[in-house]
Amino acid sequence: MAAAVCLLARDRGVTLPVHQLLVYPVANNDLNTASYQEYANAQPLNKPNVIYFTELYFNSPADGDNPLISLVDEANLSGLPPATIIAAEIDPLQTEGRLLADRLEAAGVTTTYQLYPGTTHEFFGTYAVVPPADKAQDFAADQLRAAFQ
After folding, report:
1. 139 vs 149: CA distance, rounded Å
2. Which residues, at least 6 apart from 93, have a Cβ–Cβ distance to it below 8 Å?
3. pTM for the full model?
4. At 65, is the secondary structure helix, strand, or coil?
5. In this predicted structure, what is the pLDDT of residue 112?
6. Which residue from 143, 135, 138 is spatially nearest to 20, judged by alpha carbons?
7. Which residues lie closer than 8 Å to 24 by C-beta, 6 or more apart?
8. Which of 33, 37, 10, 7 is nearest to 22 (CA)?
9. Residues 127-146: pLDDT tens digits?
10. How many other CB atoms are found less than 10 A from the CB of residue 51?
């Protein structure tokens, strides 16, 4: 959602956010990426869950090709604010996050990508029980703090 807000702000000529913090972003409409194949049965997020969510969210599969959803394939990413992408290793969305980082960099957007090995989707909010989550939250806070200086 943060990336979509930035796209809309840019396109509507309003003040852009200072920074984008994208935690395991949905950035594509391709459910056959390498991470969707490797982590199709991961927990807590897996390919059947994503199919279920998209069926509830989209009126038709074509809705997934909207540039606000399919950032990797459809969106013009130029002119966006710097981005930090936090990714989990054991996550169907892992490939999307990496592809988005590459696309942002190709569009001239300063981008920091951090993959947390051994973590699953939703790890970011589990700092009390998953040590890498604490590190990821500190990293995110440092990135945001730096953006506001």
Report:
1. 16
2. 24, 25, 26, 27, 35, 45, 87, 121
3. 0.94
4. helix
5. 98
6. 143
7. 86, 87, 88, 91, 93, 94, 97, 121, 124
8. 7
9. 888 989 999 999 999 999 99
10. 11
